Amino acid sequence: MGGAWTSRVRLAAALRCAVLLLAMLTGAWTGRVAGGETAGAAELVTAPVVSGCEFDYPPYCIVTPDNQADGFSVELMRAALKAVGREVTFKTGLWSEIKQDLTDGRLQALPMVARTPDRDALFEFTFPYLTMHGTIVVRKGNTDIHTLADLNGRQVAELKGDYALEYLKGTGVGAVIVPVLSYETALRELSSGKHDAVVIQQLLAFRLMQKAGIKNLVTVGPPLKDFTQSFCLAVRKGDTELLAVLNEGLAIVMADGTFRALHAKWFSAIEAMGRTKSRIVVGGDCDYPPYEFLDRNGQPAGCNVDLTRAIARQMGLSVDVHLGPWDTVRKGLAAGNIDVVQGMFYSVARDREFHFSPPDAVIHHVIVVRKGTPVPADLKDLAGKAIVVMAGDIMEDLATEQGYGKQLVAVPSQRDALRLLAAGKYDCALVAKVPALYWIAQNGWCNLRVSDTSVFSAEYCYAAPRGNEELLSHFSEGLAAVKATGEYRRIQAKWLSPYETTGVSLRMVVKYVLAVCLPLLALLAISFFWSRALQRQVANRTRELSFKTALLEAQSEATIDGILVVDGSGRTLLHNTRFGHMWRIPADILVTRDDPRMLDWVLGQLADPEGFLVKVTHLCKHSEERSQDEVAFKDGRVFDRYSAPLNGSDGICYGRVWYFRDISEQKRAAAERQAVEIQMRQQQKLAAVGTLARGVAHEINNPIMGVINYAQLIQDRPDIASAVRNCAGEIVREGERVAAMVRHLLSFAEQQKQAPRPCDPAEIVNGVLPLIRTTLKQDRIEVVTDIPEGLPNVECQLQQMQHAVMNLLSNARDSLNARYPGHDENKIIRVTVRESGNAERGTRLVGSLSHCVTKSLSQGPDEPVRSGARDSVEHPVNVVGDAPRSVALQGDRSQGHWVRITVEDHGLGVPAGIAERIMEPFFTTKDRTQHSGLGLALSRATVQGHGGGLSFETEPGQYARFHIDLPCDRESVISNQ
Length: 977
Description:
By secondary structure, the protein is α+β, with helices and mostly antiparallel strands. It is extended and about 130 Å long.
């Protein structure tokens, strides 16, 4: 891969040189033609070029207060045309206007246009003079947007007609693009909250935010790799004469140093650093060869150090390179003692703390073990092993994320990690491959073995703390410039060529083959001609087959799917490593391909082994069928299973291929999203009910108090007849009942904002009854409550729990009305509250039944309750047919103290065919125009959110009992004991 990369770099450099040379030659030829004998040609050469400059695209194109064009690209065009004896005038305007002016011929050229395939049809471009990268800008505190994919459905402001708008459309991320007339407008509107993000060229964003004084915007994520703008001078399509003049002038100003001077003028003034520091401190690891290290004289050396100095020369920066222990350097960067780190691996976690440049390299990390020890295939094989890593390194972060934190031993450097491993300590080391090869060679650690495959490939970047983005943008620009000049390739070759995989040239192969085989071929040319021809054919076919086999194996091992290939009779032909890991099959079974043992091992993990066998048997008999389904495991995992016939080019079916993909996380995430959506809908519903309750209570409260006051005035008058006084008394009593209901409504509304607190179970039930009393009374339904005194408290959000009880009461009402449309003595809802101990839930009642009270909803809120006997509550229920069905919908309740709230009715019960589904969201047996099917689902979610459970017992057509089990408040239980 290193050789191919070097070849591509050389080819790109050669092409660029050819373009520059062609531009200079073409320009010289054009100059000679323009200096011909005709006076008209002379006038064309001397006429000023009419160009355009957009209003606000700093530092490339800007308009001064006196309406003059200025900026890096404007000055560059002036200098390029001046170098060939031409002048230029500029028309200022919006980008969309001057771009259209060039298309229509009203302008001859533009100083800065990003070249794209679409624009190639409209304009002619010079060779690129600058390459810049894009970024995403959001408001500070935003936690939802980090990458392009996060812009799906988001509102993104973009300059009308700009490359960024075209780029964003081309990505297909699904962003809602809002065109604006300038990027300053886009950033101001983003700052005010009007949009969600702006995709923009990075340096432009910093300059515009600085100019506008915008402080609440930041860039997120690394620079967008695909958003690379190659800035060129552009002319109208077909104007090759002016294009040649511009190419010639541009080549001259790049060669004579004018381009470098202009670049330094507009780009290397780092305002954020210049006010406080004269030099930029660049940090790095003192022990990470060949990238960065201290040489024998204690001076910084290595690939990164040379690259930093090359960038500093290119950008006119003054830098000090300080190398030290990596952990110290990283802390210094976070503390502000170091301005930029010249080598840090990018990760999502680090991106929250630091800002990263585009990567200058991709470094592969490997597992190193002692010889004689099997090399783990990947990080998943490190379970139970003692792992040594460099402190603060990306591999320490990765291993910790994989759950190996307790197995890690962090040391100051990778050299220390390898030294300890070579000395017999620890089982393996996680290090970067090239530094590992360097240290092994330097120290002669012949007993160490480096894994052939990379376990992690990390992007190596420059990094700066958040807030230093402008400083880092200069290093990003300098890095692009160093790559363009070819110096980057020379630095890479100097330090890394000993570690690149080098191939053997064709010339060398031919040379040695001829030297060894020519005499033999000369002797056997005639007699064995036919034999050699046959051998060449066999060799070619063998190489072709080997290549195809290697390609298939590489593809098989690189996929995230587990792959199993079987023959027509179901015997295993081959499988990839991922298959064994996914199914957790022991190595001895995989190596021996013991199919019966493998099948037994697989079936032992499945939730439905019989269904699995039925499916496999069916597909074996029907070799032409394809299949896709899901396989569930006992431990909760879920695999997506796909199977297809293994057909050859001759049309013969040689077996079957099985693909398995672990979709457990997707399933789990989908379930969590559904639960969150249900909870959100519940909260919205509660908020709406609370708002309605407050409104109704406030509207009723004042009139009813007036009615009560007037009735009391009538009572107090001595000249009023006794009959009138009695009527006034009735008005006062009924008015006070209404006032009590108003107080309940206000209490219900205000409870939305309450946090969970210890609550009396009686408070939960008694707070609901006044709200539903009138409705039940109209349906001639009586509610009987049985709540012992001295019950322990439960910690809950009172209003939410009352809403759950309200749902159960409403369902009981509907069930009774369905069975008894008119009046009936069995139209009774019983609400009981009991405490259960830790023996078995619901089997031991705690509390004195002599203190139980029973209250009917037909009574007023202030009327005394009626004493209830135990038999009136815990009466036996006659069951006809099967035993009552009991369905528990929450985990084990066998430990601790619990309070059970039971709502019982003798209505229709729960039909046997739907008992398992009544808790599903949106499932209902009632009219969907009046019932959403969310009542029980929301009640279950509410109870489970408080650590409790919801269950029910039923006999279809006879009765239903719904139980809410809530854990007792610990302090309350202790005080009762």
